[in-house]
Design a protein that fits this description.
Elements: H1 3-32, H2 36-91, E1 97-107, H3 123-135, E2 140-143, E3 146-147, E4 154-157, E5 160-163, E6 166-168, E7 172-177, H4 180-188, H5 193-199, E8 203-214
Antiparallel strand pairs: 1-7, 1-8, 2-3, 2-7, 4-5, 5-6
């Protein structure tokens, strides 16, 4: 072969190489480009997604509002339950309370008077006073610092009296919170307990107070056998 033939072959080869390179780049551009109809589909999907996002945002706002209202309702319910629990603890005698009321002090007859009287204060006498005070509207009662509750006992133990399993001795100081006028008149009514005890030689002093404090029940409350029955 002569030089002209080699030169022709080289030129043809170069041209084919350039054509192949141009074809390869064209194919890649076509592959990377997005058709017009596909772009429209994507735009439609994008618009739909924007609508869904706005819808979800509104739902989030609505649910957030409802959640806040539920929290407020739960807080109000909790406060109501706590108030009821506080009232129940007060009624049960588990909380120290203060308020207007009366103080009743009872003591056995003086030593010189006992020669003519064998009477001494017994458990039933204290029980009668406490019941009279409850009947007159007393809201809290204590005897020598022992708060009277539904399970409290006033029991004679020899020459002593036990209240809440604690031994107490005279003089007996009875504190009662309530209307001082009603409580005092219930005991001092003509022929009432005050007159009865005084006739027996018992020293009885009744005094009204604008404010006095009745301590809380100091023992623990535990029920081993009684169980609450819940009815649904």
């Amino acid at each position: 072969m002569n030089k002209s033939m080699y030169l022709s072959i080289g030129v043809i080869t170069m041209i084919l190489g350039v054509m192949l390179a141009v074809q390869f780049r064209t194919n890649r551009f076509i592959e990377q480009s997005v058709p017009a109809d596909r772009a429209q589909e994507l735009q439609v999907e994008y618009s739909k997604l924007e609508k869904d996002i706005r819808k979800f945002d509104r739902e989030i706002e609505d649910l957030t509002y409802k959640l806040e209202q539920a929290k407020k309702g739960q807080m109000q319910a909790r406060e109501a339950i706590q108030d009821e629990l506080k009232k129940a603890r007060i009624n049960a005698g588990l909380v120290t309370v203060s308020g207007p009321g009366i103080e009743v002090v009872m003591d056995n007859p003086p030593s010189q008077s006992r020669r003519n009287s064998i009477f001494i204060i017994r458990d039933v006498d204290l029980l009668r006073v406490v019941n009279e005070l409850w009947g007159a509207g007393a809201e809290a009662v204590s005897i020598n610092g022992q708060r009277m509750i539904s399970t409290s006992e006033i029991r004679q133990a020899g020459s002593f009296i036990n209240i809440n399993l604690e031994r107490i001795e005279p003089p007996f100081q009875i504190l009662a919170i309530g209307s001082p006028e009603k409580l005092k008149s219930a005991l001092e009514i003509s022929g009432g307990l005050a007159d009865y005890f005084k006739d027996l030689g018992i020293v009885v002093k009744i005094q009204s107070h604008s404010s006095l404090t009745v301590p809380a029940y100091s023992k623990s409350l535990q029920f081993n056998y009684a169980k609450a029955v819940w009815k649904g």
